[in-house]
Amino acid sequence: MSKFIDTLKQLRSYISPVYVTMFVAAFILWYITKLGEVYTTDHQITVVVDGEELDVDCVIRGKGTNLIGYTLSSKHDVFEIPSTELTFDMESVAEDGTPMHHIATTSLQQAIAARMTGVEVVSVGALQPIRYVLMCE
Fold first, then answer.
1. Which of 18, 44, 55, 135 has its Cα between 20 and 30 A from that of 123?
2. Domain ranges of the chain
């Protein structure tokens, strides 16, 4: 233990505590400045469309502080979107005869963007078709 204390005393004679304090303060200020800039990143969310969960890969853009908030907060990861807010591109039939509906990515992007405040949804990834009987059928 005394060897460690001797090493600290020797190190302190070479490096000023004021210098270390100013170095840490400069790093913190630099980091805060960088968080104020605009960045673009990938973010995965879960969308619930009338009870069916879909994993959606999004590209979002915003200030660094807002992006960190979305990355660290779990409440921003799940969005419930009723099918009435979405449009569907085409319909196919599964092997068991169930109709499969393909959600239009533009309508999904607009619905997600309306729920994600503080960031811009640049794009959403392709989705698997959902098993859902449309209300108008």
1. 135
2. 2-34, 38-131
